[in-house]
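[recover] target loaded
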């Protein structure tokens, strides 16, 4: 009788841990953007946040959603991608509104349908960002529909999805190396990313997610650790240009 109770208790604990881990996986990725959103809204200054971060995450998570149709993985990872895309659009909406409000001179409106590569992802209206991602989503959906039976294509799309997200920290790493300084970079933000990426990679391993997930997750953790190592190496160094550095800029 004791072993029955023990098994039931283990099952209950395991279920609770599984649900907590899944919940953390779903909402954990968007938490760092909450204080960023509040800061931009409070200061009415969006210059410190790069919209390229939003572009990379929108592309990565859209490809991950397409990958799910070719190779089903856990629903929490799929839900996470959907929530992250919604979060990025919310961030873009706020940044565009603040940037337009702070514009001293009314310049010519730049929109997606101008098809001007010089102003790509630097448009003046929120609708342009939606239109761009809508086109990207339609094209990727068509490709997935046509080549869904091609194993190599499906695997490549899955790799591109997680690899794009894994490379988010690389521009930050390069800038730190170039300036020989980490001045202006938020250490707490990098620590938050590192903890989140470690948890995410372990989740991929333990839940037996597709191999692309944990390989690129490991790369992402490695980039985070290198950035933290730069903080130690460049301690005491100051950037003469006082460039504000942000992950993904």
């Amino acid at each position: 009788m004791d072993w029955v109770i023990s098994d039931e208790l283990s099952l209950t604990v395991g279920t609770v841990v599984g649900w907590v881990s899944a919940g953390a996986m779903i909402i954990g990725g968007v938490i760092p953007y909450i204080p960023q959103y509040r800061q931009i809204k409070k200061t009415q200054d969006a210059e410190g946040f790069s919209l390229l971060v939003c572009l990379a995450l929108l592309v990565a998570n859209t490809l991950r959603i397409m990958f799910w149709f070719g190779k089903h993985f856990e629903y929490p990872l799929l839900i996470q991608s959907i929530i992250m895309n919604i979060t990025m659009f919310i961030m873009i909406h706020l940044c565009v509104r603040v940037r337009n409000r702070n514009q001293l001179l009314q310049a010519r409106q730049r929109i997606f349908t101008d098809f001007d590569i010089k102003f790509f992802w630097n448009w003046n209206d929120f609708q342009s960002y939606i239109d761009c991602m809508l086109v990207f989503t339609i094209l990727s959906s068509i490709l997935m529909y046509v080549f869904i039976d091609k194993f190599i294509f499906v695997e490549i799309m899955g790799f591109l999805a997680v690899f794009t997200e894994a490379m988010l920290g690389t521009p930050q790493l390069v800038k730190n190396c170039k300036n020989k300084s980490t001045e202006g970079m938020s250490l707490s933000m990098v620590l938050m990313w590192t903890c989140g990426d470690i948890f995410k990679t372990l989740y991929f391993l333990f839940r037996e997610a597709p191999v692309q997930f944990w390989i690129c997750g490991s790369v992402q953790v490695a980039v985070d650790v290198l950035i933290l190592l730069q903080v130690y190496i460049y301690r005491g160094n100051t950037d003469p240009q006082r460039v504000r550095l942000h992950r993904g800029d």
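[recover] notes: DSSP finds nine helices and no strands in the chain.
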